[in-house]
Amino acid sequence: MTEAVLLVGGKGTRLQPLTLHTPKPMVPAAGVPFLAHQLARARAAGVDHVVLATSYLAEVFEPYFGDGSAHGIRLTYVHEEEPLGTGGAIRHASRALSARPGEPVLVFNGDILTGLDIADLLLRHERAQADVTLHLTRVADPRAFGLVPTDADGRVLAFTEKPRHPDEIVTDQVNAGCYVFRREVIDSVPEGRPVSVERETFPGLLADGALLHGVVDASYWLDLGRPASFVQASADLVRGIVRSPAVPGEPGESLVLPGAHVGSGARLYGGTVVGAGAHIEAGAEVEGSVVLDGARIEAGARVRASMVGTGARVGPRTVLDGAVIGDHSEIGADNELREGARIWCGTTIPDAAIRFSAV
Description:
Blueprint: E1 3-7, E2 28-29, E3 32-33, H1 34-44, E4 49-54, H2 61-65, E5 74-79, H3 85-93, E6 104-109, E7 112-114, H4 118-128, E8 132-138, E9 146-147, E10 160-161, E11 173-182, H5 183-187, H6 197-207, E12 212-216, E13 221-223, H7 227-239, E14 254-256, E15 261-262, E16 267-269, E17 272-274, E18 279-280, E19 285-287, E20 290-291, E21 296-297, E22 302-304, E23 307-308, E24 313-314, E25 319-321, E26 324-325, E27 330-331, E28 336-338, E29 342-343, E30 348-349
Parallel strand pairs: 1-4, 1-6, 4-5, 8-12, 14-17, 15-18, 16-19, 17-20, 18-21, 19-22, 20-23, 21-24, 22-25, 23-26, 24-27, 25-28, 26-29, 27-30
Antiparallel strand pairs: 2-3, 6-11, 7-13, 8-11, 9-10
Helix pairs in contact: 3-6
C-alpha cells in the first residue's frame, strides 16, 4: 500500500474573494474542485490511501469526496483545530497512516499543479535510500520560493527560504511542494505545536546528518497562490497542456458542463470553462476564463483570463480582463475591470460605473 498526506488546511488569503466561503483546494478548476485533480493523479501513480490534513472550512471536503471510493481512492480526514504549519500538519495527520517506520509516505501541498511523474519520484527515493526526497523545479525568479541547492548526486546541501538578499540566491532550484518521507522521519517531527517543514524540519534534518535527496524535474509546475495562476491552471487543464484524469471532457478550447447554455454566436476559447446552469449570451466572448455555476455573461460582454463566481452576472458590453468577480455579484453594463481587479461577493456595480480598475 502507498500512502500520502495532502495538506489542504490553508486559508487561501491571496485568492480572496474566491476563498471566502470555499477552501482553496475546493475552488473549481477545469470543471471540478482542484483537489480532484490531485487525487486523480495520485491514484494514477499507485497511491491508494490519502490523509487530508484539513483546517480552514474543513467541513466542506467530506460531503463532496466522502470516503473516496467514488474516486477510486481511500480518504481519511484529520482536522487541525489550530493551524500547525506544514510540518505540524504532517505530524498531526500521521496518526491516520499505517505505514511502518522504513516505508515511504508521499506528502504534497494542496495548491500546486504539476505534471510530475509521482511514481518515478517514489522510485528515485527508494534508489537513493533517502530519509526525505524533495521534488525540485527551476524558476526564472526564485526570490519568492525556498532555494534548494544540490550536489552532482542530488544530495541536498542547504535550504534558504525566500531569500532577502541577492547574495543568498545560490541556485534557481526551488522547493516544488512534493516530498517522500521515510515514516520514522515524520514521527520525529515535534507534536502538538506549529512546525514549518521548510524552516525547521528540513534544515534540522540536514544539521543532524540525514540524507535529503533532491529530484529536479522540468515538467509543468504552477503555484496556484494567486487568482491569475488559478485561472491559468484551469485553462491549461482544459487545453491538455497538463493532463488530469479528473477533467470531465476531452482537451479543447472550452469545456461546457451539463446544464450550461451558450447562445448563438457566443465565442468560447483559450481553455474556458462554463459551469452547470451558467448562461453565455449571444455575442459574448470568453477567453481562458472560469465561469462558475449559475453565472451569466450577457450580450456583447468580453471576458478574458478572469473568474466569474457562482451566480454572478456580467452585464452587456462589460469588459473583464484579469478580474475576479465574487459569488452573486452584479456587474452592470458598460463597465471595464482589468489587471487584477477583485469584486467581493454580493457586490453590485451600476451600469458604466467603472471604466478601469486595478489593484
